[in-house]
Amino acid sequence: MAGSPHDDHYSVKLQWQHTIACQLSSLLDDCISPDLICDSMALPKQSKYGQYALPLDRIHSHLKQEPWCSMTATETAQWIVAKLTPSDTIEKATQLSTFVNITIPRATYMKAVLNQVIQTKTKYGFGTSAISKDEKKILSCALPQLPDLLDANHFRGLVLATFLQRAYRLEGCDVRLVNTMTVWNDNFGYLALAFEKYGNSDGKDDLSSLNQIYLRIKQEAVEDESIHDQARQYLLQLEQGQEAMIKVYHSLEAIFTKEYSQLLEHRLPFSFDTTPNTQQPWQALADLYRHMDQSSQVIQTPEGEWKIDLNGRVLLLRDRHGISTQLTRDLLHHATTTYHIAGQHHTCHLETVRQTLTALNLTDNIFRHILFGKVKHHKEDLVACLDGLQRTIVEIIEENEGTEKYDAMMAQLGQLSETTRTKMTSDPQNISNDELMHSHADRLGVCIMLIDPLTLRRNKPMAFSSHPDVFGNSGVFLQFIHSRLCGIERQCDVTLDTTVVDHDEAFEVFDTVAQFPYVMHQALDTMEPSLLVTYLFKLARTTNQALYRLRIKGAPPHLANPRWTLFWAAKQTLANGLAVLGLEAVSRM
Fold it and tell me: Where would I find the DALR anticodon binding domain in this sequence (predicted)?
């Protein structure tokens, strides 16, 4: 368990869990430590079974004393239920197969949850993980050199990487996200040659112009073999740190970084903490070569090649021209990496990198590969998908044009644009309704695109739809529930009141809100954002159902205020969950 159960940041649910674990440990004559019992406890699959579940299968092997060592897990569960007495934290216990299900006193529990959400607000749910806050975490993922080639597999990896980036940061960790794909690769020589020979003849420093002259050089290389030799020479000069090639390198990196910035920062909520042009390959490579030259693991052939033997596999580190291979470049990229996010199809190569890092004794901290399943997709690019979603949502908004709801939404968006620089416009002043509508539609479209790849566990293959469903279990539904709660807050004169709402639907919402810190802990511990997304849909559905039974508008203050406090806690929790995913909760739809 993370920290002390008495820490102020520790969630109510985890505090109660630890207290219950202590009571169970005492009942079992301290045969099992409270921490082990606490870590073994889980959430029941259905709320009717209580708020906590202890699967005896997880701990039964630790029971070495009588009478439990002679019992089955089911019999031990029955024994615990018979012997466990109610307390301030346990109302009753029931047995189901090998599970001990525990129900806790509602009133005390609900009041404690509400007070914690009110006190912590935007920090609710964060800071409860057992992850060390002292170690710097370096996350990395590789994007294609050209943003136009950013496909659904890259996108899924990027969504996962940025979830971990934000989640670690919210937990208080020092974290950096790095894009390991730079201009330093086998194509650099051809790009440099094209840049030198043709330059930006049309006066444009963009990828389309660069791609044209690159293809032109590659076509010429088919007829002229000397171009290949010159391209290799330029790559070698870069790795040797020659000033002319360094200048070309920085020019090319600036173009690629600018193009990615326009896509990632202006439209998608992604940002790298270390940009590609901060990498200095010629400096790092010189240090690596000095280390390799002194290593007994590196084989230097008479032809000038440098190789390494990994369990019978002889791998090339430097070719006869003195140029590094992709394996060598990856050694530099991953020497300081904590986690590298990449698809399952990269597993073999990344394992080779790990083994080589170990064999050469380059780092004590070998990175971990965070893999995800392959994405089946068509040729449509992500920008086209975003544009399509924007058009669909704009059409839905336009259907309500002329209504009071439409006018109120546009007025609210106009007020926001005066204080917030929108991602779709460079000038926040004098923005037309059409621009506001398209900006709002784009935010909702981005929400759909981010939520969609996170609904499945990351190791599962998935099909990327170029036209994901706007309705049903989509990001729009989460935003709708949040905006609906904001609407209630605007329309009703309500204040926060922690008086307990004694109603089954109210307790369902309270219990779901209380699970948020636990879900965040599990999602980060397993690196499974799908756990968080599944939880957010559950919270939204539970809240939506409760809104029909627990009316606020027209209710007397002694009912309206406690009910609103319940829904305010749900609204804050939903906004916090969306923030981890990189999404800003909207207040109108």
Answer: 478-589
Find where tokens 């209580």 sit: 50
Among 376, 398, 428, the domain-final residue is 376
What is the domain extent for residue 421?
382-580
Q: Is residue 99 part of a domain?
A: yes
Least Cα distance to 226 among 255, 200, 197, 201 occurs for: 197
Query: Is 585 part of a structural domain of the chain?
Result: no
From residue 48, alpha-carbon distances to 184, 504, 536 in Å are: 58, 10, 20
Q: Say if residue 531 is in the same domain as residue 405.
A: yes
Whether the full predicted model's pTM is greater than 0.90, yes or no, is no
Same domain, 419 and 345: no
Same domain (yes/no): 221, 312? yes
Please give the C-alpha separations between residue 392 and each of 3, 455, 468, in angstroms, as whole numbers: 47, 21, 11
Give domain status of residue 553, yes or no: yes
Local confidence pLDDT in tens for the 589 residues of the chain: 444 444 444 578 888 899 999 999 999 999 999 999 999 999 888 878 899 999 999 999 999 999 999 999 999 999 999 999 999 899 999 999 999 999 999 888 889 899 999 999 999 999 866 666 777 889 998 887 666 667 788 888 989 999 999 999 998 889 999 887 778 888 889 988 988 888 765 545 566 777 788 888 989 988 888 999 999 999 999 999 999 999 988 888 888 877 777 777 667 778 887 654 445 778 889 899 999 999 999 999 999 999 999 989 999 999 999 999 999 999 988 888 899 999 999 999 999 999 999 999 988 888 999 999 988 876 555 666 666 555 655 655 555 555 555 455 445 444 433 333 333 333 444 445 566 666 667 777 778 888 888 888 999 998 876 666 666 677 888 998 999 999 999 888 888 988 888 888 899 999 999 999 989 989 999 999 999 999 999 999 999 999 999 999 889 999 999 999 999 999 999 999 999 998 888 887 6
